[in-house]
Design a protein that fits this description.
With about 500 residues, the protein is α/β, with parallel strands linked by helices. The chain has helices at about 10-15, 25-40, 55-60, 90-105, 190-200, 225-235, 235-260, 265-280, 285-290, 305-310, 370-375, 405-425, 435-450, 455, 480-485, 505-510; strands at about 5, 20-25, 45, 110, 115-125, 125-130, 135-140, 140-145, 165-170, 185, 205-210, 215-220, 300-305, 315-320, 325, 330-335, 340, 345, 360, 390-395, 430-435, 495, 500. It has 2 domains: about 5-55 and about 105-150 and about 350-435 and about 475-510, FAD/NAD(P)-binding domain; about 160-225 and about 260-345, FAD/NAD(P)-binding domain. The strands form 7 sheets. Strands 4-3-2-8-20 form a 5-stranded parallel β-sheet, covered by helices on one side. β10, α5 and β11 (about 205-210) form a beta-alpha-beta unit. The protein is globular. Bound molecules: NADP nicotinamide-adenine-dinucleotide phosphate.
């Protein structure tokens, strides 16, 4: 046998449907099924590691959970919802919406629940997936829809396991634990902690918030929608679209612009945040402790109106001393004090580099994706990686996270992937993957542009920053990213008509 074997007669060459695997039935997985079907791709299989759709909205159930992207925009463009009760929806309402859309669009029917993907191995030009149940199946195309922040980050604090009370991460909320009258500790002051502290401080006996770094916080202009407004939205679909566009423009023109170099907008945000502290924190010492020494929007800006009133309550204590250790009784800080607790909540965020994990992904020549990333995930236009043909990531590394509704990002990424599939079908291609040179040029340009963003110039540390010390984010206006997704440049890709593969893989694929 020759050292290499050619494979032809793939789906695009024979005019059959590609077999497409979608990993994850959260927001991106749901959008993938709807949009792929609409584009004429119907042989779809969705793998979901749990027993329900919804992703982050299924997983996070903590008190106060809400979305700081306005509901009219945090919606699928193909299922704009006239029934949102609030401008910023609460978690259960978003989860119900995800389930409703999945049901109405026939997504739920094709999800294999309680079935994770442990391994994805490229056997050019197809992918062999192994499920958590030990089954194997071969697909032409793989789409990961596994989300961004999904692996809880547990803090490395001495004695954490010794705590005698109830201790859990925010994404693993233990609803069997009552908080009424209890001494509750929250480690962390990010978006999640702010929502929780805002929601539970009036119920807790004593609330202890352990702050390592102060955060900038803007008020959240929450509003309950009137019956009349919702009736108008139901009657007039164009109003839903208007509201979608309005909220997108508002965030892009103000918040997003401030992050990628508009200094006047950034200064405006910082001023509004300072005013927010001034207006809502009466105690000057508490104000001092809560005021950051870096620039606003360097870490993801928190939008929350409940935290400052809550932390100003008589039963709330903001602890800024360094945490030394956790003891069976509570949390001991560097001043020697032990803060006695009944419940300890870890609002310590997520592993931001866990894209696609825990699936092991092995590309051309057996290259492992995590090894290739080496702790600093990168992608070509946030969706693909050289050496991993016919493999597409929704919400992959270096996307415009935090600056857009992630639903808008996913939908535009799907349009891009569909353009690739259409091109494969049109040209009878066996595989498609970004060229290494295109990937390098794109990432180099991003690496230079990111230096001018607030995430670098703002003087803070954040979960955006990876092992290389660089924020894992899109450094230009996010609308430019959407344009890139709508206008794919095929010269950046290896368009492979037939594939040369190692004989053992060709045999395996044929078998
Ligand atoms: P996060 O922003 O990463 O915040 C983690 C917090 O834990 C920080 O205050 C961090 O302090 C602290 N921390 C971590 N390890 C610690 C340790 N060993 N000792 C003491 N403190 C420690 O996580 P998050 O609040 O879960 O939010 C993550 C992201 O999720 C947000 O940025 C946002 O994008 C998204 N989110 C969005 C919404 C929404 O409404 N759309 C709601 C919640 C979350 P340092 O600051 O010092 O690192």
């Amino acid at each position: 046998m020759n050292a290499e074997t050619r494979i032809t007669g793939t789906w695009a060459q024979t005019g059959t449907q590609p077999r497409i695997a979608i990993i994850g039935a959260g927001m991106s997985g749901i959008a993938a099924v709807v949009k792929l079907r609409k584009a004429g791709y119907t042989d779809l299989t969705v793998y979901e590691k749990t027993d329900r759709v919804g992703g982050t909205w299924r997983e996070n159930t903590y008190p106060g959970l809400s979305c700081d992207v306005a509901s009219p925009w945090y919606s699928f463009s193909f299922a704009l919802n006239p029934n949102w009760t609030h401008r910023y929806s609460y978690g259960p309402e978003i989860q119900a919406y995800m389930e409703e859309v999945a049901r109405d669009f026939g997504v739920t029917d094709i999800v294999r629940f309680n079935t994770g993907i442990t391994d994805a191995v490229y056997e050019g030009p197809q992918w062999r997936l192994t499920t958590s149940r030990g089954q194997q199946e071969v697909f032409d195309i793989v789409l990961t829809a596994t989300g961004i922040l999904h692996q809880p980050m547990y803090p490395d604090i001495e004695g954490l396991d010794s705590f005698a009370g109830n201790c859990f991460h925010t994404a693993r909320w233990d609803h069997s634990v009552t908080l009424e009258g209890k001494r509750v500790g929250v480690i962390g002051t990010g978006s999640t902690a702010a929502q929780i502290v805002g929601a539970i401080t009036d119920k807790a006996g004593e609330m202890y918030v352990f702050q390592r770094t102060p955060q900038w916080m803007a008020p959240l202009p929450q509003k309950r929608y009137s019956w009349a407004w919702r009736a108008a939205l139901r009657l007039l679909p164009f109003l839903r679209k208007k509201a979608y566009d309005f909220h997108m423009r508002l965030m892009v023109d103000n918040f997003a612009a401030a992050t990628v170099g508009d200094k006047a907008k950034q200064a405006g945000i910082q001023k509004a945040c300072l005013q927010n502290i001034e207006d809502n924190v009466p105690d000057p010492e508490l104000r001092r402790k809560l005021t950051p020494d870096y620039q606003a929007a360097c870490k993801r800006l928190i939008f929350c109106s409940d935290f400052y009133p809550a932390i100003s309550r008589p039963n709330a204590h903001l602890i800024t001393e360094h945490i030394e250790r956790v003891t069976p009784e509570g949390v001991q800080t560097s001043d020697g004090e032990i803060h006695k607790l009944d419940v300890l909540v870890l609002a310590t965020g997520f592993d931001p580099g866990a894209f696609v994990l825990p699936t092991r992904v092995s590309g051309e020549n057996g290259v492992d994706l995590q090894t290739c990333w080496d702790g600093a995930p990168r992608a070509h236009r946030a969706v693909s990686v050289p050496g991993f043909p016919n493999f597409w990531m929704l919400e992959g590394p270096t996307g415009p996270v935090g600056n857009l509704s992630l639903i808008t990002v996913t939908e535009n990424q799907l349009d891009y992937v569909i353009s690739m599939l259409d091109r494969m079908r049109q040209d009878g291609l066996a595989a498609i993957a970004p060229k290494a040179e295109a990937f390098q040029a794109y990432n180099q340009a991003m690496g230079e542009a990111i230096q001018g963003t607030i995430w670098v110039t703002g003087g803070c540390n954040s979960w955006y920053i990876d092992k290389t010390g660089t924020p894992n984010l899109y450094p230009w206006m996010p609308t430019q990213y959407l344009e890139e997704m709508q206008n794919p440049d095929f010269s950046e890709f290896r368009l492979m008509r037939d594939i040369e593969v190692r004989p053992e893989l060709a045999d395996a694929s044929a078998g």
